[in-house]
Amino acid sequence: MQAGKPGYRSTPVCLYLSRPMESDDETLMLRYRDGDASAFETLYARHKGPVYRYLLRNCAQVEVAEELFQETWAGIVKARKRYKPTARFRTFLFTMAHHRLVDHYRRRRPEHEPHDPERAADERQAPDRQLDRWEQAQALRQAIAGLPAEQREAFLLKEEAGLGLEEIAAVTGVGSETAKSRLRYAFSKLKRLLGGES
Amino acid sequence: MSHLDQDDRDFDAYLQNDHALSDLYRELPQEHPSAELDRRVLEHVGETKTGSRLRRWTPYFGIAATALLAIGLARLMPPAQQVLPTASEPGRSESAQAPAPAPPAPQTAAPAPRTQEHNETDSVPKALQHLNAKAPASTYRADPDRAAVGSMQALESIGQSSASGQLFNRQDTSSETPDELARIRALLASNKTAEARTALLQWRDSHPHRSVPPDLRALLETPIIPAKPAG
């Protein structure tokens, strides 16, 4: 695991627990619920990147992502009074973002069908083309964009939000087996696109 | 079968964040919300915070306003309802319980109660003292006859320099005149005509501005018959 990488995995759990002076998300949210605005600023600074990328890579439009991003945090602000730390704050936050995303999908059907990721991968895997690491990352981004929405969301919740299967199921409102199935399909497709790299 | 096993192993490794796919994903460009977007989100929080702070302070503002209103009303109330009796001032408890703002003063002990009342006036806030002073003044102005004559003794005991003191004394001394006349009438009723006449003459001399009551005028016209010496 490399340091300084996106998402939450850049802070290993062992390091996270070894810093008792740093309030956890749930404590910060409770403090914000009780009127401490600085706690919200800390939460926002901690989670804004993953939430933004989750939305951006799901909807693939900056303007829409910004709008949904704003609505997500406004939802957190609005729901702070009824917040109870029964689950991780991250689950609470991404559930809010998921709902905004679903609302967006309902309001507006996709203008174009997502392109076939396997076909796109075949094009990029032409023998006369040697992909370097950066190009591989770009190919991955396009492949993610080409995944079916449910699989893409499961993948992004895993990668950006750092959620486990149970939490992905809770956020998306499906059973854990369904969530696992979606994630597995996404994983298999992306792995194949990248040439079976393991 | 081995291919499926390999897939399962890869997927398990992926779930444990131990797969090249996750590493490659982390190499994607890290998009962040713009500074403008940050500002909009945090501004929204600030607005909500201001609103909630106002809502939080609303009950306290209400309590403070109620308290101010109560204090204002209490200051406008008559002093008799404000001064509570205390154990160290037994004399004040009786006067404090008197309901009327201008009760008639005791007729026999003119100076002392007035002085005591004056002290009570000093104990109430200045804003209320004018209310205290107005009640007796208007009462005495309503009886101009009694205001004509004052008792020098009462004036000396209270203080001649005070105009309001004179008003108080007028009431107290004028109240002596009916007693004196009643005593004269009592003498007359007990056939002590000479004594009654002498007392009436003295009363007339000491009250030059007052007219003799009609029922006693005949007494002044009655000739005095000297008593015959015995034997």
Give the mean pLDDT of chain B: 65
Shape of chain A: globular
Name the beta content range of chain B: under 5%
Q: What's the pLDDT, averaged over the residues of chain A?
A: 80
* Number of strand elements of chain A: 0
Helix content of chain B: 55-70%
Describe the protein's architecture and organization:
- The complex is a heterodimer of chains A (198) and B (231).
- Chain A has helices at residues 13-17, 25-33, 37-59, 62-78, 89-107, 117-124, 133-146, 149-159, 165-172, 176-193.
- Chain A has 198 residues and is mainly alpha-helical.
- Chain A has 2 domains: 1-11 and 20-111, Rna Polymerase Sigma Factor, Chain: A; 115-198, Arc Repressor Mutant, subunit A, CATH 1.10.10.
- Chain A is globular, with a radius of gyration of 18 Å.
- Mean pLDDT of chain A is 80; it is low at 1-6, 10-21, 112-117, 119-124 and 126-130.
- Among the domains of chain B are: 106-174, no CATH class; 176-221, no CATH class.
- The longest helix of chain B is centred in the N-terminal third of the chain and has 42 residues, at 35-76.
- The N and C termini of chain B lie far apart (169 Å).
- The relative contact order of chain B is 0.05.
- Chains A and B meet through helix 3, helix 4, helix 7 and helix 10 of A and helix 1, helix 2 and helix 3 of B.
Brief overview, please?
The complex is a heterodimer of chains A (198) and B (231). With 198 residues, chain A is mainly α.
